[in-house]
Amino acid sequence: MTAQDFKQEQQRLHETIHYMDRILNSSKRDIETAQENIRTAMANVEYLDSSDSFLNILMNTRFFELARNQKEGLEAIRQKPYFARIHFQRENEDEEFLYIGKTSLFHSETHEPIIVDWRSPVANVYYDGRLGDITYDVRDETHSGHLFAKRQYKIENGELINYRDVDLTTNDELLQEALEGKADVRLTEIVSTIQKEQNEIIRAHLRQPILVQGAAGSGKTTIALHRISYFLYTMGEHFNPEQLMILAPNRLFIDYIADVLPELGVDKICQTTYAQYVLDALNLKLKLQNPNEQLEQLIANPSVQQEYAMISKTKGSAFYELMMNRYIEHYEQQLAALFEDVFIEKYRIMKGEHLRKLFLVEFHYMPVEKRLERIKKVIQTEVKRKTAAVLATLNTRYEDAIGRALNGMRDAEKRRRTVTKLIDERDARVPKIKQEAKSVATVNMKKFQKVKVKQLYRELLTNRELLGEVAPEWPLEDVAHFIKAHQKERWVLEDLAALYFLQAKIKGIDDKWKMRVVFIDEVQDYSYFQLAALKAGLETDMFTMVGDLAQGIHSYRSLTEWQPVLSLFPRATYATLQKSYRTTIEIMDVANEILMQMDEDLPLVEPVVRHGKEPEFIVAEGFDPAIIQDVLVKIRDNQHQSIALICKTTHEAVQLIGQLENSDVPAQLLDENSAIDQQKLLVIPSHLAKGLEFDAVILTSFDTPYDDNPLDRKLLYVALTRAMHELYLIGPSKEAFLMK
Ligand SMILES: Nc1ncnc2c1ncn2[C@@H]1O[C@H](COP(=O)(O)OP(=O)(O)OP(=O)(O)O)[C@@H](O)[C@H]1O
Q: Which residues participate in ATP binding (predicted)?
């Protein structure tokens, strides 16, 4: 870095910021003008031609929003307009320097790019790794060019601190520096150090599903969020943010990522949990048993819970999906039997058989109740068409009969009576037919009562005969267990997939909840049927799914391998991420020891080359706040802020917090609904720590030590891999942490 170069870069930065300030000022003026115009138009609404004023208000509101978005966008990046530069030459064009930032900025007169968005096609060459001759794709067309150099900047508060040219060695250095940062700022600052294999997932074909098996700390959550941002940038013309949905494991996790979303420009998308989404989409109020309590019971007593686990597993399986499909078929057949010929008076307008065929075959692609609505419309149209013919026939017949009476009857009195009778008869029948024509469709379809999906499902759970019909291959003993377990009305997460599936097939999912693109974090905690139901209800396969089987702590009810997901999404790309960016080598070594003990044959996690403090094992017979106090002092001396104390169960966490409250250690017990207070020591049961990360983690293992079983190994693995820089293990022996 020569002084001359530095000066030039500094100048470029100052010019950029200066230009941004100019635009900012003009946006502010635009906002004021638009506001003023809206005020005037509002005042005139009463007495001017109101449609004009209304149009005026609409236009100015749009104008106002544009100006406000521009202002907010610029303010967000003003302190750090860009983070990298590429020295690049497109084929047959001049060499150019492109500055890459979080959003783009073009010169309003020359239209030259001042900052290029990191999501733009050309920015891909920055992430793709190589220098030299390269290719990049724009809208499915491949372009070539030559990349001379990549440069990364450190800019703080609008001032250039330094910069470095990036090659393979400096890439690692820069990454390490980024990883050394604190937990609270890291998630937002990754755009500059996204790695090649991560970039490939972010930019993988957007209209196709993707499934990522990524080690703990490999950046799955980060990548999912960046992929959303990339998606909106690239596909914004075709999709609104409201059509996208992120499914996260719990509220705690949603709050944790919520800070990052506005930064990535993706704050408008629906962020929810599977349970909440299903309840919203079905407009249902159900009190679900807390799945974490279920898990806790399973942790406390694995053998007693076996039967329960069997039911949970079934409810998530492809077999359960088959059962639901058979149940729907059974219900359809019941309805189909109700179709009858449609008559108006004595005239048959439509055959029942035809309607049944419409219902079972032609309209089968629609949800049941939508089919019934459609059939009602078909009847209405047909009735309308045929009523005219019926009336015409009737009129002709009467006219013929009257004509015959007039011409053929000699007796005048008899003739008069006959003709009068015929006319009276006709005058009575015609309006009746017209009347009947209006209501015949409704009357015919009345027998198709709408069902409540919840009741329909509940009926299946306890009806032996029905279960025999939809699950003939189920051993009687299992059916009996199943029915017994459902005697009392109780709802669990595992029921939601079935409810959603029935809703989708019987009523259809409301447009408001019919998201077109789905991002799922921690997908290993889903069951096959949860995913299948969602896919069926949304009628899309545009799913981005990221997860880690090694962290599958809910495997009693969820996936234990990826194969079923890949068969459900045959178009899916499958990618793996083996590198961990979160943890130091020293901490990962400990975590890998546990990974090796797992039944799943997962490869060891490779930490990126970053050394840190050796994990410290502290022998203690019982929990002692004084030890924690000492550890906290050490951690804070190392400038680390976010600290978690993780133990196996909620039960133990509650006990520990009680003891800490009696000492001087400010601590907070985290549950799913709490907001994190970074100033305090966070006490967390292992299963809730999933997805989170902390500068330092203290693991304790006293009253509820980790046992040598598959579930406990995963809980321990999750707990260990939360640590970024420091790890402390406190317990009576290493065995309490499944180590030798
Ligand atoms: N390319 C990168 N540059 C800098 N930091 C990164 C990069 N990739 C990931 N990280 C950091 O690594 C940490 C782990 O990322 P993230 O939480 O997304 O991983 P994860 O795979 O979802 O982990 P887990 O499965 O354990 O929840 C985060 O602090 C993230 O900021």
A: 214-221
